[in-house]
Structure formats: structure tokens, C-alpha cells
Amino acid sequence: MMFEIVKGLGTTLKHMFEEPVTIQYPEVKRPVRERFKGRHELKRYDNGLEKCIGCALCAAACPADAIFVEAAENTDDIRYSPGERYARVYEINMLRCIFCGFCEDACPTEAIVLESSYELSYVDRESAIFTKDKLIVPVPADGQPTPQKVEPGKFDRAVPEMKDPT
Ligand code: SF4
Ligand code: SF4
User: Fold this and answer.
1) Ligand 1 in contact with 42 (CB < 6 A)?
2) Closest ligand (CA of 94)
3) Which end of the chain has the smaller Cβ count within 10 Å, N or C?
4) How far is the CA of 64 from the centre of ligand 1 (A)?
5) Which has the closest alpha carbon to 54: 158, 163, 160?
6) What gap in Å lies between CA 151 and CA 37, rounded to an integer?
7) Ligand 2 pocket member 136 (CB < 6 A)
């Protein structure tokens, strides 16, 4: 009997000095794999213009019908994206999304990207609808916020001629 108790205490002592296997989330966040598909982001070019051109191909490709896009026309005085149109409304219903990444694959401008954030929680159905304001990334350091006033005819293609437009 005594032997079993001592043996048991020995096992306890041995494990007390080992590295813990539990991750202390949320203080410690585990890095995700490179191919992880998390919360979406709408990207911008370095000059601040939005990559999304409101074509709605992502919405068409979405098997869960989770994306709603409403496009509007750009002008050179009020320009959100290169080319003719931008997404005036862009919404993703995260309650429907199955994180398949089809939207990302369908996007011709690489505007919508499933990034690494997995911290998604909602208190009601309405807050599970992520609007454009929530999805779009901040303006880069050398860029300007949208809408921008640009010189006439400078951005007449959906993907601008820039050094590295991706
Ligand atoms: S990840 Fe899939 S389900 Fe989610 S919005 Fe994109 S296409 Fe739709
Ligand atoms: S995210 Fe891409 S596919 Fe979707 S509307 Fe914008 S440009 Fe088109």
C-alpha cells in the first residue's frame, strides 16, 4: 500500500516539473498554420485605394449565400477603387460562412482574403453580419483614405498599373 502511494506521489512530482501542455488562451495565442482560413479582410493597395471593384464574383461563388455586394460608380473626384466601380455595400453573414475560401479564389483582384484571426463571437444575429467598415483593412502608411480625388483618367483599369499591385 505504502509503495503505491509513494509511486503515485513520484509520478505527480515528475509531471510538476514538465512543460505544461495547456495553452493559456487568451493570454497566449497559438500561431495558426499558413493555410488556415480565418476571418475575412478586404484589402487595399499601397496608395489606399480599395482592391474590391464590386463585381460580386465572390457572392456568386459562395455556396452558403453569405456575401452581399452592392456596387456603385467611381468618379475621379470620388474614387474608392481603380476602374469603374467599387463596393458601396459589402457584407458577409458569418453565421452562414463555412470558411471554404471560394470567395477568395473567385476574386479577380485579390481583394477578399481569409486571414488568420479566429476570434469570432457575436451576441446576436445582427452583429454576425460583418459590414465593409469591419472587413476593410486600415489605410497603409503611405496611402490616403477613400474616397480619393485623383487626376482624371489615371485609374481606368480594375487593376491599376503599379509597381507591385498585389
Ligand atoms: S469562405 Fe466560403 S462560405 Fe464563407 S463567405 Fe467565402 S465563399 Fe462564402
Ligand atoms: S471582393 Fe473581389 S470578387 Fe468580391 S466583389 Fe470585390 S472584387 Fe469582386
Assistant:
1) no
2) 1
3) N
4) 7
5) 158
6) 38
7) no
Cell of 43: 484589402
H/E stretch holding 130: strand 129-130
Angstrom distance (rounded) from CA 69 to CA 62: 12
Q: What is the mean pLDDT of residues 47-54?
A: 96
Residue nearest to atom 8 of ligand 2 (CA): 55
Reading the block at residue 12, the C-alpha cell is 505527480
Signed CA dihedral, 88, 110, 158, 57: sign only: negative
- pTM of the full predicted structure? 0.85
Report residue 125 as a C-alpha cell: 444575429
Ligand with minimal distance to 63 CA: 1
Residue 106 and residue 58: Cα distance in Å, rounded?
Answer: 6
pLDDT, position 51? 96
Pocket test for ligand 2, best of 42, 55, 65, 92 (most atoms within 8 A of CB): 55
6 grid coordinates? 509513494
Q: Give the residue whose CA is nearest to atom 1 of ligand 1.
A: 99
